[in-house]
């Protein structure tokens, strides 16, 4: 019994330890745009100066490669890191890496890569409504019928 209590205590302390959670490598934002650690294949930003920031193991090196040019930064004592890169307008291949983990995506910068007239005019393709209501309606009716029949069957079986 004592071994089980100690094992549970060790597991709980490991799960609650901030150093265990800080061991992950992620991208938190691109110039203030919250990425929430999501790893999407394409991001857009209107300015040509990108500030990448995220989390890594405290004191570890973070490599930032944009269009084949690499720079590096170091995560601070709390595991936070950031790197500022000046870019031209257009698409850029970005590779972030630290401690064997890699994040790859395309970053499109600048305001000229969006057809603002089409956006303002509301032109373009609209997404269709998702889902269908019929399965839900059939399930609801089937459930109500089942409840009504089930109650009568219970009385018949019991008698």
Structure notes:
It contains four helices and nine strands; from the N terminus they run ααβββββββββαα. It has 159 residues and is α+β, with helices and mostly antiparallel strands. It has a domain at 20-123: Immunoglobulin-like (Sandwich), CATH 2.60.40.10. The strands form two sheets. The protein has a five-stranded mixed sheet with strand order 3-9-8-5-6, with no helix packed on it. The two termini are 50 Å apart. Residues 17-22 have low confidence and may be disordered.
Topology at a glance:
Blueprint: H1 2-16, H2 18-21, E1 26-30, E2 33-34, E3 42-45, E4 49-55, E5 61-66, E6 69-74, E7 80-86, E8 90-98, E9 101-109, H3 116-121, H4 134-158
Parallel strand pairs: 3-9
Antiparallel strand pairs: 1-2, 1-4, 4-7, 5-6, 5-8, 8-9
Give the structure's gist in a few sentences:
With 159 residues, the chain is α+β, with helices and mostly antiparallel strands. The chain contains 4 helices and 9 strands, in the order H-H-E-E-E-E-E-E-E-E-E-H-H.
